[in-house]
Write a structure and sequence with these properties.
This protein is an all-beta fold and about 200 residues long. It contains 1 helix and 23 strands. The two termini are about 15 Å apart. Keywords: Cytoplasm, Cytoskeleton.
């Protein structure tokens, strides 16, 4: 009688991404992970909401249907939702890509529908980021904030409120706090050693 080894809580990909078995990734062919990204339980990524209208400028090139692109060392906390923004384009409704750069932390229960999020961004718990918002580099969005659609948040800003507004600046020496390499190392399958 053969016993299967216990399965870990996370699936680790070749590029070092750690995806929880209880995360929901819909339309995986339209989701790009840059590597060393952590996706916790109950995270929902909607890759099925991909662009349906093709641009005429691409000529004979194959369509790029990436709905969600996530950079390196990102951390998606439990219960957050990433959803591409949608709008009318050339007379029909379509979705535009959601692009997230490197070292982005998304807090638990947050809903992201931004057009782009820069590098070294910290998004708190239960934050809502409206459609087509643009968040530049080194931004901290505090817990419970609601970023309205189409808002552009400049680099080195601290944002809070409902609706969100810039309430301060990230201090000069505070840039190291955005590094997520150490947090990445703490997540993984802590399987007991195999019996000898």
């Amino acid at each position: 009688m053969s016993r299967r080894p216990p399965r870990g809580e996370y699936i680790e990909t070749d590029t070092g991404n750690k995806v929880a078995r209880k995360a929901t990734l819909v339309g995986t062919q339209n989701i790009m992970l840059g590597g060393k990204t952590v996706i916790q339980q109950e995270v929902m990524i909607r890759g099925d909401l991909a662009r349906s209208v093709q641009s005429s400028s691409s000529g004979g090139a194959p369509p790029n249907n990436t709905a969600v692109a996530i950079g390196r060392y990102c951390f998606l906390s439990r219960g957050c939702c990433l959803r591409p923004p949608g709008r009318l384009y050339k007379g029909s409704f379509t979705y535009m890509p959601l692009r997230i750069q490197d070292h982005v932390f998304v807090g638990p229960g947050s809903v992201i529908q931004a057009a782009s999020i820069g590098s070294h961004v910290h998004i708190g718990a239960k934050v809502v980021i409206g459609e087509f918002a643009i968040i530049k580099d080194y931004v901290r969005i505090l817990d419970g904030s609601v970023v309205p659609p189409n808002m552009v948040i400049p680099s080195f800003s601290i944002v809070a409120g409902q609706p969100a507004r810039v309430i301060g600046e990230v201090p000069e020496g505070g840039h190291e706090a955005f590094e997520l390499r150490e947090l990445y190392k703490t997540v993984g399958n802590s399987l007991p050693p195999a019996p000898s």
